[in-house]
Write a structure and sequence with these properties.
Helix content is 31%, strand content 26%. The strands form 3 sheets. Strands 8-10-7-11-9-12-13 form a 7-stranded mixed sheet. It contains 9 helices and 13 strands. It has 333 residues and is α+β, with helices and mostly antiparallel strands. The chain is globular. A hairpin with a 5-residue loop joins strand 12 (307-310) and strand 13. The structure holds magnesium ion (MG).
Length: 333
């Protein structure tokens, strides 16, 4: 019984004692949680899966990092909506005979991310299976009518991203190759892969300012394509403006990671030209915020190309969405 469900849930419950945010009327331990949102606020809800062999690999990824990253995936979606992180629900399929140490370490990482965001773990489910698979359900609160959506970008709006792009994908390459980081830039990329920090503070400052926003989980080329599809617009980005990571000598490789690498968990957003002076200061938030391009009207004639990349030579070339595809991409198996 010591390693059974009840013992595990007791351990999980003991970890939660410190965190009890406003609005959690009833947490872990009953059949359902009871939440009470702030009056006049709406609730954003998102869910995200993480599967062994698909999103992490045992022996390569540390369990604390997996738990942390899972929570940040949900928190990043909340950030993209401009929501304040509030509650997390965590469901897990653990392999039978999984050593409790791996589970506990995973849980500690998840709990650390929740605490950083000021969110509480309010429930979930547990079962066993052949391979590990996890689900995070994240809830956030937003003042009524102020959620950031993907569908509001208009021609003339400027396109921005936070942070540096392609770091997580570079870190993932190092993990897969067993490469030990040799310099601060490599160490930072590995850290960003293992411990991405979702941008919920930035998301909240963009309420009432950004015309559209989303988080960068699958790679800029794919995510910008989705934002443009939702808004019914086209876009042009400038190669020389992109916050590409990595050494200049390998610029082409790192440009590819910036455009198509996933798991950056930065924010992509658009600002109307007349609001540019109201932009938040990236220094206050300790994150670089870079203007990378502009929204164009959708061309209907011929074979419309949605995304364009202006190269450093000033030429416009079509940009195809080549980021992570949940049903196609295989990076770990
Ligand atoms: Mg998202």
């Amino acid at each position: 019984m010591a390693n059974g469900e009840n013992a595990w849930l007791d351990w999980v419950r003991r970890q939660q004692r410190s965190a009890r945010p406003a609005g959690l009327r009833l947490g872990i331990g009953d059949d359902a949680a009871i939440l009470r949102p702030r009056g006049g606020w709406e609730i954003a809800v998102t869910t995200d899966l993480m599967a062994e062999g698909r999103h992490f690999r045992r022996g390569v990824d540390r369990p604390e990092d997996c738990g942390y990253r899972l929570a940040m995936r949900g928190l990043s979606d909340l950030a993209a909506m401009g929501a304040e992180p509030w509650m997390l629900f965590f469901s897990a399929l653990w392999p039978q005979n999984e050593p409790p140490a791996w589970r506990r370490a995973f849980h500690r990482g998840l709990d650390q991310a929740a605490k950083e965001a000021g969110a509480a773990l309010a429930g979930g489910d547990v079962s066993s299976g052949i391979q590990a698979c996890f689900d995070i359900l994240a809830l956030g609160q937003i003042p009524r009518g102020q959620a950031l959506q993907r569908d509001g970008a208009r021609p003339g709006d400027r396109i921005f991203v936070s942070g540096q792009l392609g770091q997580a994908a570079w870190g993932r390459q190092m993990l897969d190759q067993g490469h030990i980081p040799q310099n601060p830039r490599e160490r930072q990329a590995l850290r960003r892969c293992r411990r991405p920090r979702a941008r919920w503070e930035l998301g909240q400052t963009l309420r009432g300012l950004a015309s559209a926003a989303m988080d960068l989980s699958d790679g800029l080329s794919s995510d910008l394509d989705r934002l443009c599809a939702a808004s019914g617009v086209h876009a042009r980005i400038h190669e020389t403006h992109l916050p590409v990571t990595g050494p200049m000598l390998q610029r082409k490789t790192f440009l590819d990671l910036a455009l198509n690498g996933g798991e950056d968990y930065e924010l992509l957003f658009t600002i109307p030209r007349r609001r540019l002076t109201d932009m938040p200061n990236g220094q206050d938030l300790s994150i670089p915020i870079i203007e990378i391009g502009e929204i164009l009207p959708a061309r209907r004639a011929g074979k419309p190309q949605r995304l364009w990349l202006e190269t450093k030579n000033g030429q416009s070339q079509p940009l195809e969405p080549r980021g992570w595809d949940a049903l196609r991409s295989h990076i770990l198996l």
